[in-house]
Amino acid sequence: MIASGSENGVSRTRRAHPVYRGIGALLPALMVLTSLLGLCLVWSAAAGIWPSRAFPPPLDVWQVLLKEAASGDLGYHLAMTLWRVAAAYVVAMVVGTVIGVLLGTHRRADSFFNPWLVLFLNLPALVVIVLAYIWFGLTEAAAIGAVAVNKIPNVVVTMREGARALDPRFAEMANVYRLGPVDRIRHVLMPQLQPYFAAASRSGIALIWKIVLVVELLGRSSGVGFQIYLYFQIFDVAAILAYTLAFVAIMLLIELLLVQPLERHATRWRRRPA
């Protein structure tokens, strides 16, 4: 028993050492890099077995990526797509959260508008985009609005469930302490809705940027979607993959460096001290 206790103590000491903590923090990143390297090796081997212009090897895609970056086209089109993603995301999250909370806290309104919600949930994104361009023209507002309309119903459903799960005891406590509207939202509503908001936010980013590419393909003269359509016309698969992988890499960086840290910061109060 004494030996076992000593071994556990040594193990805890090693885990607490800064060197071991640093190695533990690097392991996930090393695993991701190893996985991506394995994917590139498989891709390169497959391209070697089946040489074709329709399936370029990673090196060809990398060369096109460097050429587009050097010319400035890659940065410009990435920036335009990111601007549309950000604008549509903000509109969808704000409007969807407000509507979802209202429906979740008012049963009669929820019963009346639920058929509307089901309709918009099942409305194809392509139809919304085409109608937006027909009704409002090939404008930036129409493009961003079409993307936001496609995402708002999903946000409404998620936030409605969160509003239904609100604990009434916290509302009673707010009444006892006579909290104002701002304090109620900040200290009562937001902490309870945070997990639902995070879920809607994460799925929202993944869905919105895919719809933005379709919007750009159909009616914009800039952005990653426009470039993919342009290179599709000349059958340049290497350029299509270069722009696609560049934007996917940007979205992964946003997830790792912005979304996840913000989520950890928002939920820090839930973590119990060791």
Radius of gyration: 24 Å
The main pleated sheet reads as: none
Beta strands, count: 0
The structural class is mainly alpha
* Helix share, percent: over 70%
Distance between the termini: 24 Å
CATH topology of the largest domain: MetI-like fold
The CATH class assignment of the largest domain is Mainly Alpha
Number of helices: 11
Task: Describe it.
The protein is mostly helical and 274 residues long. It folds into 2 domains: 2-49; 58-270, Orthogonal Bundle (MetI-like fold), CATH 1.10.3720.10. Helix content is 86%, strand content 0%. It is built from 11 helices and no strands. The protein has helices at residues 2-16, 18-49, 58-71, 73-105, 107-122, 125-136, 140-164, 168-176, 181-219, 224-233, 237-266. Helix 4 (73-105) packs across helix 10.
Task: Please outline what is shown here.
The protein is mainly α. It is built from eleven helices and no strands.
What would the keywords be for this entry?
MetI-like fold, 11 helices
